[in-house]
Design goal:
By secondary structure, this protein is α+β, with helices and mostly antiparallel strands. About 25% of the residues lie in helices and about 25% in strands.
Length: about 850
Amino acid sequence: MPEKRHPHLIVDQRFHSTKDYRSRPRPQAGPSIPFRNRETHARRLQKVLDESWKNAEKANAVSSVTRTGVYLEFKSDPDASLVTKSLEDLQSKKVRLLNVRVEEGEDDKVTTFATVFVANEKREHFLNKLEKYADPEQDRSYEDKPDIPRHADLINSIADIRGALSVEFFWTDEASLIPGDDSESVEVWLSSDSDETETQFRELCEELEVPVEAGSIRFPERKVVVVEANREQLEQLSLHSDDIAEYRRAKETAAFWLDQENADQTAWVQELLDRLNVASSGELAVCILDSGTNRGHPLLSPILDDPDCHTYENRWGTADRRGHGTLMAGVAGYGNLQAALESSASVELTHVLESVKILPDQGQNPEKLWGYITAQGISLAEIQAPDRNRVVCLAITAEDSRDEGRPSSWSGEIDQLASGTDGGDPRLIIVAAGNLAPSTVSARDYPDPQILESIHDPAQAWNALTVGAVTELDQINDPQLNGYRPVATAGELSPFSTTSVEWDEKWPLKPDVLFEGGNLSIDDTDFFDESDDLCVLSTYHDFTKRLLEGFNMTSAATAKASWMAAKIMAEYPEFWPETIRALLVHSARWTPALEAQFLGSRNPSKEQRKQLIRICGWGVPDLDRALYTAENSLTLVSETTLQPFQKTSGRISMNDMRYYELPWPTDALLDLAPEVEVSMRITLSYFIEPGPGEIGWKDRYRYPSHALRFSIIRPEETPEDFQKRISSALEEEEDDINTAGNSSRWVLGRNARHKGSVHSDYWKGTAAELAASNFLAVYPVTGWWKERSYLGKAESGCRFSLIVSIETEAEEVDLYSPVATQIGIPVAVEV
């Protein structure tokens, strides 16, 4: 990058406006529903429905409490749709869809199951539908359409009905995790988010002598608590309660092992302390949720005050006896501690640390509702310093990877905390992707085990910045490791990193970015080792024995990401968390080694690029690029809002989009030679409000509250044609349908980049084409705010951050100054 650097340019409201949108009806592709003999099918379902109801009533009769209804399960045919959105009565709320599950049979065909609660007074609800389906003449509104039975799609999609009497009807996790005779920690997802429902359930647990943990997590129409129960106790809960929606196995956290030693460290540390300048006034912090931090460490005491050391459980104290939290602090505070020790220059620290101990000194936390624990930990820091800007850093993950992108109570709470829908302000939360534990297999067969190991809970959170690991460390100098070789070469994926390759297409592209996470060494006999040479340097918790320790895995990477985020926040303190996340993603690039490792081809397809992101995210962020722009490049930043949906005459429809006419260096681009190639990078970042209950994640039960998309004008289009195309695209994507028409100029393309809540892509073309590409639109896509209008969120506003940068290798061109002039600011002096 050239020596002259300037701050990013802010695009204000002069350069964008809100455009109204009105949807037009369009044909919809129907679900896969079998054809039925109407009368035969109706009579059979009436019979099984009646039998199921009677069986459920018999079971209810042995309950010690008065039940207000029964649970029923509806089943589809294999590889056929089940019209789940018609399985509930939203108006009365007496027929409630609780969960949707899919099971794959031996023939690879998928069957859908839905559990529904039906109140006693609604016993005739489905029988009436069956009557109208069997005999359309009974329905006066269908007098002129006798061949079109009422409720045909719903009834034809139902293959069977039965009373939901066992744990399996509510279990939405892996079947192998259902408890047996021994008690296990189980998440109970209640079918209402009311305090009264939770109180009733806790009273029931007390009556049945089922231990229930303190704390709960609230989601739209759901509350989550944790019980210690075996299978029989879960069945008793289902038998006695009308409020069960789901059961899931609660999560255990991963263990960490680091036992490297360093000697002769005291003199190095003291020399660094002599050069240390703590420039922060305490207005900015990295908040580390971990095993505590030992602030008496000489390198940490200048940036971690005693009032900023918190603990989830008072009896634990705030000290770190596991060692992991203090390791996190060394990297989160200093970034590259080894470089700071080796340098002779002054070291300026622009942020302080906060430590929240959420792990006990030994064993696991007795409470398994990790989302609640995470929320309580953040709250402790915010109460202590309510006006402080902060980056939340979480490197504790579940030890298994069974979610495979599917939202959990933990990741859902991360999304709530980040979006501010818990009642707070939006937050920047940075989460470790989770580790593949080192083993002979992971070292010998690298990188295949890494690709197949799914990112761990809660790193699937849409709003979190999820951090995987890369490594530049491939030099082994330890004489005791003679004959060993590094598993990864410099610039390749760290052997500890995990990916989202195995996730369903509807889940986000994760990780978002990579940072240094260390390497493994292996010998010819497949014996592996974690060498000091292949770790980053950090602070050791027992500083009376030694001051420095090796650190690796995605924990080290997450600490470094948090440090960089704080550096950006220090430079731009008014930027939103969405913008800081966007700048980290926007500044990231894939190393040549990563592209060679996972692309191979000189002309990779968009699908190959998407797979690269599922392995490596958007690459390795660059702090200089995230902070500044150069004269032969340009970065524009916009922070604004829109209202995705509107309510008119009781109907919810798409509302508006944001249309930009960006300030653009048109003359400077046209002055370049025609053959000069230029590139544009666009990153769109916003936070969704989650709806994590397992009810299929489609129709009205989509996980995100809303979604946004971006598009730019094509060189051959007029602004009027562009607006028409965007209105048409909005119609096509109103139900988030993938559409054709990916431009060859885009590296990833619209069908691949629009996953999750941060979208980024590269455009490449000539300077003349780019000169005509300054019209851009951000428009909404449907979500549960629109589909579940009864929750009162349909007319909610959302905010988003948009970053647009253009650059060229032609160093003689000045792209910055003409745009700064249009915005109305003097050209910045050198930073």
